[in-house]
Design goal:
Blueprint: E1 2-9, E2 12-19, E3 26-32, E4 34-41, E5 52-58, E6 68-71, E7 75-81, E8 85-92, E9 101-103, E10 126-127, H1 129-132
Parallel strand pairs: 2-10
Antiparallel strand pairs: 1-8, 2-7, 2-9, 3-6, 3-8, 4-5, 4-7
């Protein structure tokens, strides 16, 4: 439905983003560089609700196979740039919906995501002012429970 392309410098941390009302599944690919990509399960009916998974993603090269990460609807998404620069391309299953845009703090203590901050040579991650205003997980407005999953 929509293609997104971002360019970031080392240490930039984006996320954790999700949308209400018009959720997006995302197919993520790194075009250049190296990121650590994170998905957090926000589906209240899921046995993995509140759990996160992190993956190193690199651009394809002669030494590396193509790496893609599928993040289904109902997950928050974020990434940390570990190389000097990174270009990230992702296909989304729905259009960007500003009214539904939400963010959870990247360093929320309940989620306790183990970001590879040590790769930043002692520097803190660079977080946008918008992402710095993200909510704590326990205070975040999360997607509603899908009734079809409960039947």
């Amino acid at each position: 439905m929509q293609d997104n392309h971002s360019f970031s410098l080392k240490g930039v941390l984006r996320g954790l983003h999700y949308q209400l009302g018009r959720p997006q599944g995302k197919l993520v690919r790194v075009l250049s560089g190296h990121i650590w990509d994170v998905a957090v399960d926000l589906r209240r009916e899921s046995p993995d609700f509140g759990r996160w998974a992190g993956f190193h993603l690199k651009a394809q090269s002669s030494a590396d196979q193509l790496q893609l990460l599928w993040i289904p609807e109902g997950f928050a998404h974020g990434f940390l740039v570990l190389s000097e620069t990174a270009e990230v391309f992702y296909k989304a299953t729905n259009l960007y919906y500003p009214a539904g845009e939400r963010s959870i703090l990247w360093n929320d203590p309940v989620l306790a995501i183990d970001w590879p901050i040590e790769a930043l040579d002692g520097n803190p991650p660079l977080v946008s002012s918008k992402d710095a205003l993200g909510k704590h997980f326990l205070e975040a407005e999360l997607p509603p429970v899908e009734v079809s999953h409960l039947v």
